[in-house]
Structure formats: C-alpha cells, structure tokens
Write the structure tokens for this entry.
Amino acid sequence: MNRIHIASFFLAFSSLQGENNPILDSLTSVLRDPAGVKMALTISQNQYDDSYVDYATLEIVNQHRYIFLSPAQIIRVNDQTVYTFTPESHQVVIDRLFPKEFSLFTLLTGDFSHLDILKVIPSTDGTQLIEFFIHEIELSGTLKIDEVFHPEKIHLNYDKDNTIDVDITSFNHLRQPSDILWAVDGWEVIDLRE
C-alpha cells in the first residue's frame, strides 16, 4: 500500500457487531458535538518493509458528514456518498457508503458499536487506554483518550508487520467546514455508484 492509498484504506473494513461501553459513550458525545469537531492527525503506517507517514485534518460536521484533508487525498463524505479527490492523478472517485460498513472513520466519528472491548486501563495522568478486538477481520487495537474524553491515539494491529497508528495532535470545535469544489475542471470523474 503506497502513501496515496493510506486515506483510502480508512474505508476498507467490513461490517461488524459489538457492545456499548460507558467510557465510549462519553467519547461519542464529544465526537458528535453539535458544533462539529476538527482534528489534526498524524498517520503512520508500517507495512512489512515499508513505512509511510501522512499528515491530515479531519473535520466532522456530524457522523454522516465529514471531510478528510491530506496532501495525497481529500475524502468528503456526505451521508452515503463518498467523494475521493486525488490531486496527483487529477481524479475524483464518487462511491457509496453502505450503512453497516466499518472503517477507521467510523471510530473517529464516534461509532464504537463494532468493537469488542477487552479491557480499559486507566492511567495516573487521567488518560485511559481501551484495548479492543474485531473478530470478523481479526484486528486488535487500542484507543487512548484523555481525561475529558478527547481521542489521543488509535493503534491498529493487523499482524506484527502491518500496523497503523493515528495520533490526534489537536482537537477543537469546528468553526467553518472546508469548502472543496465538487467538480474540478480537467479532472477525470469516476462514478462507481451505478
């Protein structure tokens, strides 16, 4: 998986089942703030002999409307429609999200119902580390949150040589969502909804 595909990877999980957790319910409330939230992300992927780092911003208006902005790709989700802008190839891919699909975006927008919580480890500094497992795709991971339920780090472990870490380096209220042009002159538009 090359650097350009890191953002697309977020949309590649399958449908799962899980349980509620009071700590995660509090985190969901924070992520679904009516004012919206904006997070700065550092995404590190280690895949066998290759390592990639990408810096991005995620703006969440609500769990069904958000935008992921990185130098490699811009992914805009509006309800069940996904627009993926790839500046390097001058392509816009339009696709559908299925309601039961699970992705890292699902975590970042506050839906934790797909996780099996293994344990919650509190720390003396007020942070908590939540260990989880997703049986259908045999994925283990951790989610670290601070004392006011802001996410700090997500770690996904596919196997010992294939991991993704997402560090949330800032977390703020969303003042104004970014406005990305829906049509880009001269770009190839690939519509997969049909």
